Amino acid sequence: MDLRAWLRRYAARRPHVLIVATRNGAAVRLAVEAELARRDWPIATTPADTDVLLVAGIPGPELATMIEAVWETVPLPRAYATVDAPDAVERKLRRASADLAAGRPSTGPAPSAATSLPEPLEDGQGDKPQQPDEDPDEQHGEHGEHDQHGEHDQHGEHDQHGGRDEMEMPGGLPMADLGDDRDGLMLDQLPVALGPVLPDWPAGLVLEVALQGDVVQQARARLVDDPLGEPFWPPGTSAALDHGDSPGALRRAVAQELDAVARFLAVAGWSAPAARARRLRDRQLAGDPLEPICASIEALVRQVRRSRTLRRMLRGLPHVPVLFALRLDALEHAAAALHEPAAGTVTPAAAPSAMRPGRSPRHERTRVDLAEVERMLVGAELAAARLLVAAADPVTEGGIAGSAGDAHAMALGGNRAARDGTSGSGREREGGEHAMDPGSESGTGHGRGHGRG
Amino acid sequence: MDDPVTVPPPTAALAWWWALLLPLVLIVVAWSAAAVDAAVEARAAGRPGGLTVPAHEVTRLLVGQRRRTLAADPVLWRAGAVVLPVAAVLAAVVIPLGTRPVADLGVGVVWFNAMEVLAWAAVWMAGWGPNSVLSLVGGYRFVAQGLAYELPHMFAIITAALGAQSLRVGDIIAAQQDLWFVVIMPVAFVVFLVSAAAMAFWGPFDAPVAGDLAGGAASELSGVDRLLFLGGRWLLLTAAAAMAVPLFLGGGAGPLLPAWAWVLVKTLLVLAVLVWARRRFPTIRMDRWSEISWMVLVPLTVAQALVVSIVVLAQGGL
């Protein structure tokens, strides 16, 4: 019997799955994560460690292009799956595993119009190195790739700020730019796009940053594509709590906070409580009895708050401790509101925020807006930047109008306006955010973020 | 302690073919530790099993394709992955598997330290090679980590050598016949454990390969390269844990069981502590740890070495 086939079948019993979540794809992502946890299949953190590339939700044209680029970098044997509804998860995963076991070559994502360049064909030989960096979309492929196609591999994302004169280097890579650093030195400046395919990262978020060393000098956030379908999370945590009419919405609010806390803990490198938070989230959404879940949430929050190591790691980082404290508070309060429904449901009409005066204003500002994130990121190191994004947990879902083509032009102001249009509490939320860090000079970071190119 | 220099027996090293068995021994120990680790994780998640996880992982990496990236430095990159397991095995040659090591070097402690420092080069090369940002940042994180952990680590090792007045690992074991060094020099022991984890970029010191960098130095490795790199990390951790046994835990000394069994039991216990610590603490970043390491651990280990040397002098050792 063919040893190779046998090994392949054995390996296919526990493949690593890379989840690419689309905006508004949270429902599918959560279903996938729950199913993976049940099967004990690990979530891949990088395309290099991926067996199954799974797209949760329906990707728009831009994300589809990125997914193709990521797919090119996934080593064989590999399988590709798109899941657009939570109930299809189990079937698709089973099929992906079967495909891997049988060694069936996977077709991968259907090529989109933007990627018409010929790709090197894979011949199914596991030992033949592929060329992950064959650039599927060349018109801006030559920008900002020096030292960076890891990024490029992982996210399939290019820096699109055209218009710079760049010296062509062997391999089509440009030199890094020079730029002033925070200490007044001229240092190499490297444009890098973080996201949207990055572990524990908000769905559909792309952060275009200029790095000097691992310090973020400029940051520009944008969202890929228009979201398709309905948002999964309640529009604002406070809204769900205050109009606490449906226990389903309350449960979702708690699950959302658990999801955010789990992500933060995972980014902070504390996998055990992160996994615990995810399990609680899944149980919460599955509708398990409340009593034990709420007790576990309390225990989790207590454990995380008590950790001196975590405190020491976060202390002094820009904005992160405040934001994470808010995140834990929000989780605690959401759980409390769910646990003691009397507070929310007895008089749903009577000015709910007055009922819990200490609570609601805090909730108003737990989710930070992308423009704020952008501004906070300047000057942070990569590790701090990741923590910051995770703690801010910006909302990337929603129904935003506008064509996908001008995702660029539709800068953050546009997103904000659109979100205000869709969710009633957007305006107040922003007010809260600005009040949150009075020390930071708003506007300068933002201006610098757009000032390159 | 009348005769400070224990005369080693004429054949202090194991037979030559043990050099071929040594990698297997290390792999078996590391494999069982990985299996138990996975089983503990599965239990925490309320799932059965987990013991077969290493087998699945190794298999999928064996059949996986190797990758190439644009404008990579393939020599450094592949070498980085290979150096890690090789360094672990070479470091382990001076560890007595029972009463005798594979190679009984007069400068065994220095040899061990020199081999484990190869990990610096290995991780940095693996991070540099693929020409990718996250990978490169991971590689440099490990260089910074090395700067932080290596000094206290060396002081901890040297303290054990000081206590025995010999760099030969066999002599260090012989010097613990009355009292294990963990009792005389607890600070050095704890620092050794901490820096062993840091050296194997393990558990709270895993920033070089952390998830926030999508795997950092390992983020571009696939297939057999990844297997060598991540497997090498396990081997390095195992070798470091095994080295704690002759340095601080009396080597193969113990009642009833033969010496090799005691070495195994103690090694597994130290490994269990290291594996537990990974679950217990969030990732410790070097921008924070360096301060603790240099301001607290270095003075502590120096003070520990001073105390030990005074004790040695008082006993008329020199």
Short description:
The complex is a heterodimer of chains A (453) and B (318). With 453 residues, chain A is α/β, with parallel strands linked by helices.
SSE blueprint:
The complex is a heterodimer of chains A (453) and B (318).
Chain A (H helix, E strand, L loop, with lengths): L2 H9 L5 E5 L4 H14 L12 E5 L4 H12 L6 E5 L5 H14 L46 H7 L21 E4 L5 E9 L10 E8 L2 E9 L13 H6 L4 H21 L3 H16 L3 H17 L1 H7 L5 H20 L2 H4 L6 H4 L4 H5 L5 H8 L4 H11 L19 H11 L3 H11 L7 H7 L3
Parallel strand pairs in A: 1-2, 2-3
Antiparallel strand pairs in A: 4-5, 5-6, 6-7
Chain B lengths: L17 H27 L8 H11 L10 H19 L15 H21 L4 H32 L4 H6 L6 H4 L1 H14 L23 H26 L10 H22 L5 H29 L4
Helix pairs in contact in B: 1-9, 2-9, 3-4, 3-9, 4-5, 5-8, 5-11, 8-9, 9-10
Structural notes for this entry:
The complex is a heterodimer of chains A (453) and B (318). With 453 residues, chain A is α/β, with parallel strands linked by helices. Chain A has 19 helices and 7 strands. A 4-stranded antiparallel β-sheet of chain A has the order 4-5-6-7. In chain A, helix 3 links the parallel strand 2 and strand 3. In chain A, helix 3 packs across helix 5. Chain A is globular. The radius of gyration of chain B is 20 Å and the shape is globular. Chain B is an all-alpha fold. The model of chain B has no long low-confidence stretch (mean pLDDT 88). The longest helix of chain B has 32 residues, at 133-164. Chain B folds into 2 domains: 31-63, no CATH class; 67-314, no CATH class. In chain B, helix 1 (18-44) crosses helix 9. Chains A and B meet through helix 1, helix 5, helix 7, helix 8 and helix 10 of A and helix 2 and helix 5 of B.
Low-confidence stretches of chain A: 114-168, 343-364, 400-453
| Largest sheet entry of chain B | none
Structural class of chain B: mainly alpha
Given as residue ranges, the uncertain stretches of chain B (5+ residues, pLDDT < 50) are: none
Report how far the terminal alpha carbons of chain B are from each other: 12 Å
Which geometry of chain A do the CA atoms define? Answer: globular
Tell me how many strands of chain A there are. 7
Task: List the domain count of chain A as a whole number.
Answer: 3
- Overall shape of chain B: it is globular
Beta strand count of chain B: 0
Q: Strand-and-helix sequence of chain B, N→C?
A: HHHHHHHHHHH
Mean pLDDT of chain B: 88
Adjacency order of strands in the biggest sheet of chain A? 4-5-6-7
* Sheet/helix structural class of chain A: alpha/beta
| Major beta sheet summary of chain A | 4 strands, antiparallel
Topology pattern of chain A, helix = H, strand = E:
HEHEHEHHEEEEHHHHHHHHHHHHHH
Strand fraction of chain A equals 5-15%
